Amino acid sequence: MTTESGADSEAKQPQENKEKEKGKAAETTSPQNQPEQLPAAAGHSTPARKEQEQQEDDVSHESSTSRLSRSPLRGVKKVKIMQCKVTLLDGSDFSLNVEKRAKGQMLFDKVCEHLNLLEKDYFGITYRDVENQKNWLDPSKELKKQIRTGPWNFAFNVKFYPPDPAQLTEDITRYYLCLQLRDDVVSGRLPCSFATHTVLGSYTVQSELGDYDPEELGSDYISELRFAPNQTKELEEKVMELHKTYKGMTPAEAEIHFLENAKKLSMYGVDLHHAKLVGNLYESLAPAEGEDSEGVEIMLGVCASGLLIYRDRLRINRFAWPKILKISYKRNNFYIKIRPGEFEQFESTIGFKLPNHRAAKRLWKVCVEHHTFFRLVSPEVPPKKFLSLGSKFRYSGRTQAQTRRASSQIIRPAPFFERSSSKRYNMSRSLDGAPIMENHETLMKDSTADGAAKVIAKGDIITTVTTEKKAEEEKAEQEDGQVETPEPATPLRQDTKDTASPAEMVKHQTNISELKRSFLETGSSTPGLTEWEKRLSSSPARSPRADDAPMIEPLEPQDIEEPAGEETNKVVEPKATEAAGYLVKYVVDSIGTDLASSSGPHGISLSTTMDDDVFMDGTLREVEEKTPDSQEDVSERSVLKVSPGAVRQEVSQAISDKKGTLIILKEPDDREEGTETSAVGEKEEPVVPEEAEEAEENEMSPSKEKESITDNTSVVIEAKTEEAKSLKIEIKTDDMTQIKGIDSPKKAMASWISEEVKTETSEINNMSIKEVKEMKTSDALQQKTEIFNFEEAQKSNLTQITVSEVSTTSLAVSTLGWVPSSEKAPAELEEKAVVATETEAAPAKSTGPTSLDAVDASTKEKPVIHTETKTITYESAEVDTNGDIDPGVLLSAQTITSETTSTTTTTHITKTVKGGISETRIEKRIVITGDADIDHDEALAQAIKEAKEQHPDMSVTKVVVHKETEITPEEGED
Amino acid sequence: MANMCPYGKFTHAVVRGIPETFGKVVGDSRENGEVSVDLAKAQRQFGCLTGALRQKVGLQLIEIPPDPELPESWRIEDVAVIQGDTALITRPFKQQRRSEAEAVRRVMSELNLTVVEMGAEEGDSAGATLEGSDVLFTGREFFVGISSHTNRRGAEVLADTFRDFAVSTVPVCGGARLKNVCSMGGPDTIIFSSSDGAKKTLRMMEQLTDHHYEVLTVPEESAANCVYIKGPSSRDFLLHRPAEECPDSASAFQKLQDYTLLPTACSEASKLGASLSSLCLLINRKHTYF
């Protein structure tokens, strides 16, 4: 585990390739394909051009198998076009031309466009590597770095099988899912009984051929279709029998029935990987007598709920995502670290040997992606550190939660699409491979203009189960030439002994360089932190307990609130409870100071390290509400409060930027000293004790979590993820007084206490710097809009008035997903009593607190107009703590802004880890701008209500209302 | 999928009478040597069980006549695993029990079930043994107890037969069989004994399952074996051991809301390691697709 040596060897590569990076930067071809440029580009006869020709040659002659064509090394200046062939789910081929440097996302988007598919996050594009293994195309990486050899052939597939297809919004999405499942069934990847083959087959027939009609269909119509790997006459007869009973059923209905049946199959959506057990016998594997489990052939199945372990057809173990603390791979091995069970004190690590390194990495990636998609609220931002070890790979698409939210906003009329005929026995019918889609966009025509003919696919089956030979060595040399330079600051370790490493290195570096392009880097990982983490991980006291549902652990006395909620859940829906509590595990080898943001408390955060050759590990971190270290939680919060300086900038930027969509990513960065300092300067705030009545609003319901959990009985996974979120809406004022309200135990009264904002220095290093970046990619825009106010964002109104010119009410509601237990204890009783309080009621009250002092302040941002400013903060009691406690480490921060006519919502998601607890907080800053004719109170109420709806499982812990009123008598709302 | 419906709907029960050789094990005097069983009482209890199934629950009862040559043939549960319209004829651990299957096979065919055999003694399933009393079907998935009588190979055959379902193997402690320590008590309820071995099995099940089951824990091990049937009128029936046999567990059954409890004595069969569920095969012939 000598990290240093590896780092050394790694460092060379970056330098070597730096040149290339520059060249690339100089090239600066816009990511968007610009067809006009193409001919010019093609005209150049550079060495690279030859390369291109060769590849195109490969494409045109498909028979030429896997020629190892090298991609250009450097000095490529011109846009080159590659022809891609994507095999679609109906078996037809879609050909299109892409720029050679295009990223996976571009190809994916084009295919989805071609398919008229909006709910595309469940899908992905696969390609075959040199070993003919199926790999998922990484959307964030360039195609040419992924397809290293051979023709650019891809396939469009379902990547994440929705556990409940009925929740998909559009029929067209279900149709494609059906196509995938039909193929899964026919290929045998999705095993079914005879009866199920019959039922699925009958719905297939109904959806494809319509009502049973012997005159039109003939008597033998059914034997053309394929329903099962071994189709018998008996099966066909039964299918026909059932088909007769479906008269009048529409194709979409038949598909829903199909999916309702298919989703219950035990292997639905399970991605299988061959492996062998490593290490000694694991009790639960129930080996046959006298059998050593070492080396036993098993299958690892990755699915929405976790990792399944099969031996032959038997399920011999299962690790739900919450049970998994960490996933990692090293050389050919894949490891999972398991949370200790009820009676175990220490976590255990189980190792599996995969056929080769690539297989291990592939499995690891699939796990990371599935976990993120199904369990997290939003994807984690890949780690970015100067000294980063390990894979940068993260799932970067939308999570299921996000995609559901987004697709609920789909407003287009149901698209017309033609269901193509499925694969037949007689494969010769290549001419009737009708195009699937009727609603092609013009773009697609352009891209296929090269005369790419549609080809009917053979029964090409994508094998999920893989057996692989070690071939990395042969490939190593070749790949070396293609190494993309990472920046020197990101040394990856390279172990020369590891045969697999060259290939891996390439990938990592590519990843890194890409990341660098998008994000600022931070070099925040300090050795001290690592030490700290080490201690955490080794201390049994910190080890997570009491989380999984069936095994109820004694609850820590301090945390009254959350546990109480969980108890209730257990009765009703233990599964949901299982999700509810996870402990953040700090893993020794993860140096992830700045981890990605926004995984909910129950999300597993992945950190990667490379502590020996190519070693990735993902640390699955889930936060547990019941941790004893609530103090740290609290302190962390105070840290966050200070960050406003940064946030504020973003907000003001967002406001001044009239575009409806703006995504601001906030990244930790040490370099921006200036920002930090200013933030520090603003920290000190006057203490203004206030008294106020009506503090009930603050007591926003940890107990509400109960409801949300129980409601979600059927959709356990969703419940889990959502639960994780914490919402925070907060206003930050530089010069303004912050008044902080504390819930009084009694509903009726509350004493308002001014809050001192602490100064923190160290934390700022981690968090205060941010890069405000407008994401130009469509991806980014979509992400943002989906998350919040999809429709509204679209309508974003350019007529919005600048803050300085109107009276403005800035409202902030801050929420914390969970609260430090010890702090909570006193307030506990009252909070229970107030559980019923309506959230919406809160804002109204809080906006018009006449009893509060108005603090006159002019902020820097609004120099022109004299305004009156009021800031009122409502906070749960536990919030009020001293900031000098260990602030924790900011893992990540993210800000998303959306605007409507009168409001700008800035959502700032931060994730911090401290004392082994990770916390996600979401701050929503809602700036309501407008004249007096806008009902600010109502707008705020609406905003808070929306926030609650968006994050039903988080509790609101703080509401800050800040009003700035232009001092003209008639304006202002009071 | 087509086969997946809540557990408990049955239309038929297949039983086999108690022969006069009850309690005598062919070629093996050691195992039950000191156990003295009361044949007449066993037959009376058998009669009560079948009566309850037919008259109280309302199932169609098919009784295979006893065969004195097959002293354990009354343990009909072991001989077949039935789900939906498929019956897997098992291969009991004891060689001499394997001929018990013949009569059962006939009945299954008459009921139009698809009969699946374990396969030749050689070949793929060589050495595979499987007994129905080690198989817990929950309506959603199978658990197969790896016990002294059922091995992993046998479980594999079962998994290959019922492909729609997850088939998980769980350890069974001591000499017990899986259904000695647990049984279904409702569509989503598993009745479990509170013994240490049973707890181990339960923990493993909880780990392996994707679903959530309510667990009803009973203090006595023998009380953990019950027969749950959702009758034609959608009433919940539970055949369980009476208070005389399991005094401490009687109260536990009262927790089952709106159940029709049918205390059914089984003391004699119990002496031979069997229990209520051992005595019947349950079949649903009104299988509906949706």
TrEMBL record, chain A:
Residues 62-71 have a biased composition (Low complexity). SUPFAM superfamilies: PH domain-like, Second domain of FERM, Ubiquitin-like. It is found in: Cytoplasm, Cytoskeleton. Residues 82-378 form the FERM domain. Residues 1-71, 467-571, 623-713, 838-862 are annotated as: Disordered. One of its GO terms (cellular component) is cytoskeleton. Its main location: cytoplasm. The keyword Phosphoprotein applies. PROSITE patterns: FERM_1, FERM_2, FERM_3. Keywords: Actin-binding, Cytoplasm, Cytoskeleton, Phosphoprotein. Residues 556-565, 687-699 have a biased composition (Acidic residues). GO terms for biological process: actomyosin structure organization; cortical actin cytoskeleton organization. Residues 9-25, 48-61, 623-639 have a biased composition (Basic and acidic residues). This is Erythrocyte membrane protein band 4.1 like 3. It comes from Sparus aurata (Gilthead sea bream).
UniProtKB/TrEMBL annotation, chain B:
One of its GO terms (molecular function) is hydrolase activity. InterPro entries: DDAH-like. It comes from the Eukaryota. This is DDAH family member 2, ADMA-independent. Belongs to the DDAH family. The keyword rRNA-binding does not apply. Keywords: Hydrolase. It comes from Sparus aurata.
